[in-house]
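Entry:
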Amino acid sequence: GQTDNPQAAKDAANASRQQVEQCMAKCNAAVEAFRHAQQQEVAQIQTVVQRGIAQCTDTARQSLPASPSERQVNRAQQNAEACAKKSFATAEALVPKAEQRLREHAKKLMQATSR
């Protein structure tokens, strides 16, 4: 058997170790790829929020005259806050699609890793 040939046993152990290392490398690459995809999805949603809030701020500033009254400032602030809430709602609506894309991405990575 294999015990009669120490070199064959050593070769089999090395091949087995190599297979484990290749498997681990594949899994680590898949985890990294998923982490990258996740970061991209989050960054896109953050960008939507940031752009929306910047637009709200610009609109509020532009609505004010050179020397605004306290009432005008308060109204501009309320409008900016309402606008910001809409920006968050818009971004929140993007989350389910992002989750779906990430689930599909994870499924593809698992299929590729199990080969």
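Residues 2-113 form one domain.
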